[in-house]
Amino acid sequence: MEPVSIIAGQVSDLDRSDVDTDQIIPKQFLKRIERSGFGEFLFYDWAKEPGWQLAAAPILTAGRNFGCGSSREHAAWALQDYGFAAIVAPSFGDIFYSNATKIGLLPVVLAEAEVRALAGAGSGEIDLEAQEVRFAGRAVPFEIDAEIRHRLLGGLDDIALALRHEEVIAAYERDRERSGPLTTAL
Amino acid sequence: MPQTLLDKIWDGHELPGGLLYIDLHIVHEVTSPQAFEGLRLAGRTVRRPDRTLATADHNVPTDGTPLAAQIKDELSRVQVQTLERNCAEFGVPLFSMGSDRQGICHVIGPELGLTQPGMTIVCGDSHTSTHGAFGALAFGIGTSEVEHVLATQCLVQTKPRSMRIHYEGSPGFGVSAKDLILATIGQIGVAGAVGYAVEYSGPAIAALSMEGRMTVCNMTIEGGGRAGMIAPDDVTFDWFERTTRPGGPSGAALADAIAGWRALRSDDGASHDREIVVDAAAISPQVTWGTNPGMVVGVAERVPAPSAFETPAERDAVERALHYMGLEAGTPIQEIRLDRVFIGSCTNSRIGDLRAAASVIKGRRVADHVKAMVVPGSQLVCAQAEAEGLDAVFREAGFDWRSAGCSMCLGMNPDILAPGERCASTSNRNFEGRQGRGGRTHLVSPEMAAAAAIAGRFVDIRDWS
User: Fold this and answer.
1) Which residue among B53, B82, B126 sits closest to A70, beta carbon to beta carbon?
2) What ipTM was estimated for this complex?
3) Which of A46, A167, B176, B346 is the most exposed place for a label (fewest CB within 10 A)?
4) Does A10 touch chain B (CB under 8 A)?
């Protein structure tokens, strides 16, 4: 994962609530076994509707509960591959939020009025270190879990970090692991 | 200090470094190939293949195609064969096509006895919440997290807040577990439980079978909650006592386990971060009319008008939904005519669901203009249903009796709706295009779907005789 620090530039806006991951990347594209190349299929069905416009830009603003539904990480891959580096919305689906942070696609929660104001400004700058979004001469703070922020800023590999705790995991398995089930015994 | 069920399971699995130990990891073909590839590139192995189980479900054709090599769709075939290769390479047990234990990941975990009270369970699928019906902490994860669990048997996880949804009163005749959860999502909204693990309680929950409890927990994610759970009780223990389950304890080990499982409940006086009360007695059979599971009404009601909603954003969403669904505001739900009926999915494809649907249609015929199908959730459910003669009941009524898989819940296999087709479905999502591009999905219980197949339109199951 590439480190995330400052994301600046144009804002694209998708002013809809409850955008589910089935819309972000429909099921027929989940059959690929690669991680890349999903961007061209982003919002595949909606993109065919008359009047649809969603320019690739560093920042995407959206309505509440963005990324609800299916756990498919392909949705986060597609948004990133399309060109977005940060998504700003009043709230996110839990699994989508987590998936985005794992690949360095920054999810930012702002109050609905601030999301609309950022969309209206048309461009802005997101500073993860300072935890603020700057646009139209203002700086709006946002909250993010300290551990997630640390990992994003450093572009850290979660698995490598966890494996540093190998002794702790092994001790848990030795002392506290519950008995069964063993899938290999089936 | 009194603890919630969530507190107890969390405490039993929390490790330093912000890690949560995972007892059972279920893997399927769609969300795992990139995770195995990640392991390969980093030279890592699967830490605990003995706590990992794989199955093929999403892409599996339900026409009885016996082997992955015979799947006609090339991408689907490659995806299932990739799972087979990955499991062989990394030593992960797999029930693929051709196995008599193959089935939907959230059906086979419980039926094999692998899903047990007090466990932490994850899978790269949002309906992993299903397993919480046993008093487990179970939630869906993305592919990066699948790779993380494969490599470390842990997840980086912050503890969710806890929500209790308490049902007061008893549901009336004809009101099923599916109706309880659909009405609940209608009440709290599709983002109502975002950030929470939900514990369901009350007499209406205690009265449910394990199948019914799985239906409720399954759809927790449709209300935004990543995990749903129900404290284990005698109904739960009976699941293991009545049937020998190869992945679960038996004999003296089972008695010991049950003694421990009895402590898995929220203590008296334990406080949840949010409490919601639902009046179970007021719930009627539910039918969704829109494009998310919160867009739902009782079967005796009408399709709502955009003007009935408060905010401009809601009115926009309702207008979009009605346009997509091809529905006029004010139409009585029971005048909605159907083209297709689908009974299946991880929400409603277990033996209890099939028995309930069969009891409604016995001796009747599917309406001439309706194509109806039943897809058991697993090969074991399929075999059980056939042993009970349910397949004959469905076939004689004109249903297509299929073999196990995710089928038309999500359209990754040949079972899909054509554009404009309208379907009564026992699955969990009525999102645009979910069952096929342009397809129109109405979510209902198995009983309501079965009756709709016969009548060719929605009917109130409470009037069915």
Assistant:
1) B126
2) 0.97
3) A167
4) no
